[in-house]
Design goal:
mainly alpha, two-stranded parallel sheet, 11 helices, single chain, 3-methyladenine DNA glycosylase
Amino acid sequence: MVVLTQEEWQERERTFQERMKLYTEPHRERQRRGEKHPVMDFLFTYYTQRPSRLERWQPGFGVVLEGGAKFLDRSGYTETPDGVMVSPEALTPRLLDTADFVHRLLSATESRPAQLGCFGLHEWAMVYRLAQDELRHSEWPLRLGVQGTNEVVESMRIQCSHYDAFRFFSTAARPRNTLQPTQQDRVNLEQPGCLHNNMDIFKWCYKLDPFVPAELTADAFELAAEIRELDMRASPYDLGELGYSPVEIETAAGRAEYVRYQRAFAERAGVLRQRLLETCRQLLEEHVG
């Protein structure tokens, strides 16, 4: 059991909130202006953690907060002789099932070598043989135009293993994928080189609230934000007006650049994955105990 003084946890809380407001405040400002952002909106729309919740610090499981009475206003906290902590009783059957699934998924992912040959073609497959007004980000032009984009898809091997990317493929692109992943295939197919798999570490963190330390969630969110930027820089969209230079995966140099980023992200994600696996192990052992 770790005990944090009031001064210690308040400083961690301040630092955490400053980190997250770098993302949440610009998002709120865009919302007030009614402005869409093809890169950053994804972190608040595809992922379902509200900005206000993202800004809320929490200690995670097994940490006692001296002078932490304000946390008793939240669900899942209890008072102890030493302070306030997340209650083991908050570990509901639903959360236990989630912890078990996340543990199995992340363990399976870690057991496989990183596959680095997808080159971000999932984004291209999402627009394959669609008209401009049918595109997810239809207000942004395609760098190579509709025909040029289709030709890239037809000239390269698509090997997406991530169901939540594959399910957004255009109807014409689906048969071109070497795999046909389903939701039930996650544990069998996920691998640590996948950009979307590594972004999803953030999702698994907030799915286990309030048991995951806020700092781990913040690390996962920041990694997801960086990966999302690469995801869209390597996409067929022209986002130069927003300051994003393209990673031209239709060229050999662009593919090499993509792999360098992908490998570095995979290494960073592996560290976060191990930290989240440890949290899952603690929760599952707490249940057994």
